[in-house]
């Protein structure tokens, strides 16, 4: 009895999804999903070590990728993208946008990027689409891998009338964010990331084939979305315990230790070897760190595996007006930020009786993929290309939603949240608190109880 080749099957496949309900996957996407390199995403947690804080956050990059694919299909139908090859390439780009992600997602990616500027998941995704078994599968179903990458990079110009699709994969209102806010909120068991997705999608429309804008009736749903991003940043993505594990991971894999892991590089010759590198692989590597040497790396590895995070000592949150940054300072934030900088430069004064290798400074603004509140801090024409614009009427030009001073988006665009924290081992906490209280302006600093 002969078996039909999966690449030629004409039946769609259906996935039950807790966020979007039934997700229909067409045969070409199904064939790509069956690739072992895509199935690898089942073993990579979307929110890294957040499950050690919010126990439900066990969801994977696989589910998120399906969700983004579903939103891509929804929008190409709504926008009337009837050119089948363009629609297919765009939807497959949505499906594959995270295929190159690192084990434990952004947590391990931060480690990798500190040792090489090309070690980022976007580069791995591009190489997988162009030079791996995924590329072979795309070619077999008559999809050009180069076109898929162009959509991922926001440079697809082959069909000028569909240029606006680029924005849906890379902007302040892209389908990546539309999915992960709802998905992360659901699995963490919190309400911070919820917004009216259906109303928001209905209010989206192409404008002169160049961009996607929001109709006037969608303003409230956009503001809900913007506030959801802001709230999830503070309550979930920047949670102090989750960040403690991120910092521990960075300490466990300094440059030489990272290089010894043998993680594939994003090159044509190595990219096909990525299949076995998932969360379980990284946990095995942590378990393999020698446990009997008594050195600081061994002790930290034991703590990590036993869920004993380094201890939060204090933090300062600062709302900074981006137009007044040179005129206004918050003394407590400045002092803690300077202290963290001194740690990196190993320039702490001798009155501190805590070993410098047992103190961690965390300036979140520089280390998270979620740092932009609504729009980027850099107000260049390049950074503004993905802003959210509202079309009040067909006769008007669309305007940045933040241009309305009464808009919530206007406040969040102008006011940047910065967070700086200090951590140490449990045995050092009392001494470090005593030292910092002598150095810092106490107003504005939140101190962790030492008992």
Can you describe what's shown?
- This protein has helices spanning 27-33, 36-39, 61-78, 84-95, 105-113, 121-131, 133-140, 145-153, 165-169, 175-188, 197-202, 219-237, 240-252, 255-259, 279-287, 296-305, 331-345, 408-414, 429-439; strands at residues 13-17, 21-25, 204-207, 211-215, 311-321, 359-363, 389-391, 399-400, 415-424, 445-447.
- The protein has 451 residues and is of the alpha+beta class.
- A hairpin with a 3-residue loop joins strand 1 and strand 2 (21-25).
- The chain is globular and about 70 Å long.
Overview features:
alpha+beta, Hypothetical protein af1432, 19 helices, 12% strand, globular
Largest sheet: 4 strands, mixed
Low-confidence stretches: 367-371, 375-384
For this entry, what is the oligomeric state of its chains?
A: single chain
Q: State the strand order across the main sheet.
A: 3-4-7-8
Helix content: 40-55%
The total beta strand count reads 10
The percent range for strand residues is 5-15%
Distance between the termini: 71 Å
Number of helices: 19
Mean model confidence by pLDDT: 88
Order of helices and strands: EEHHHHHHHHHHHEEHHHHHEHEEEHEHE
- Tell me the CATH topology of the largest domain: Hypothetical protein af1432
Strand pairing plus helix content: what structural class? Answer: alpha+beta
Full CATH superfamily name of the largest domain: Hypothetical protein af1432
What's the CATH first level of the largest domain? Answer: Mainly Alpha
């Amino acid at each position: 009895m002969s078996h039909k080749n999966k690449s030629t099957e004409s039946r769609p496949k259906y996935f039950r999804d807790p966020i979007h309900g039934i997700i229909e996957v067409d045969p070409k996407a199904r064939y790509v999903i069956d690739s072992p390199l895509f199935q690898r995403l089942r073993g990579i947690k979307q929110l890294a070590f957040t499950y050690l804080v919010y126990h439900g956050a066990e969801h994977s990059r696989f589910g998120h990728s399906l969700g983004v694919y579903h939103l891509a299909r929804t929008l190409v139908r709504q926008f009337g993208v009837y050119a089948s090859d363009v629609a297919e390439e765009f939807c497959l780009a949505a499906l594959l946008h995270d295929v190159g992600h690192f084990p434990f997602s952004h947590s391990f990616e931060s480690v990798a990027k500190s040792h090489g500027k090309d070690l980022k998941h976007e580069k791995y995704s591009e190489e997988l689409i162009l030079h791996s078994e995924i590329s072979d599968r795309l070619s077999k179903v008559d999809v050009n891998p180069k076109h898929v990458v162009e959509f991922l990079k926001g440079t697809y110009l082959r069909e000028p009338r569909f240029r606006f699709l680029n924005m849906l994969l890379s902007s302040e209102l892209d389908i990546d964010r539309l999915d992960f806010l709802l998905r992360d909120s659901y699995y963490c068991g919190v309400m911070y990331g919820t917004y009216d997705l259906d109303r928001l999608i209905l209010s989206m429309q192409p404008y002169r084939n160049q961009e996607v804008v929001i109709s006037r009736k969608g303003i409230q749903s956009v503001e809900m979305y913007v506030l959801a991003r802001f709230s999830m940043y503070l309550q979930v993505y920047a949670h102090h315990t989750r960040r403690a594990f991120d910092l521990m991971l960075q300490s466990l894999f300094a440059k030489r230790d990272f290089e010894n892991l043998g993680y594939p590089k994003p090159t044509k010759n190595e990219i096909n070897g990525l299949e076995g590198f998932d969360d379980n692989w990284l946990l095995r590597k942590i378990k393999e760190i020698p446990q009997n040497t008594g050195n600081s790396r061994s002790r930290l590895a034991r703590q990590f595996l036993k869920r004993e995070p380094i201890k939060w000592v204090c933090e300062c949150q600062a709302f900074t007006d981006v137009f007044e940054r040179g005129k206004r300072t918050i003394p407590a934030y400045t002092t803690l930020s300077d202290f963290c900088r001194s740690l990196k430069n190993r320039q702490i004064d001798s009155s501190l009786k805590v070993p410098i290798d047992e103190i961690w400074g965390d300036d979140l603004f520089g280390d998270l993929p979620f740092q932009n509140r609504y729009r980027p801090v850099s107000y260049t024409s390049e950074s503004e290309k993905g802003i959210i614009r509202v079309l009040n009427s067909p006769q008007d030009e669309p305007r940045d939603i933040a241009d309305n001073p009464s808009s919530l988006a206007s406040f969040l665009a102008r006011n940047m949240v910065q967070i700086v924290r200090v951590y140490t081992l449990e045995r050092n906490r009392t001494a470090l608190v005593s030292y910092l209280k002598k150095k810092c302006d106490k107003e504005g600093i939140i101190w962790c109880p030492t008992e």
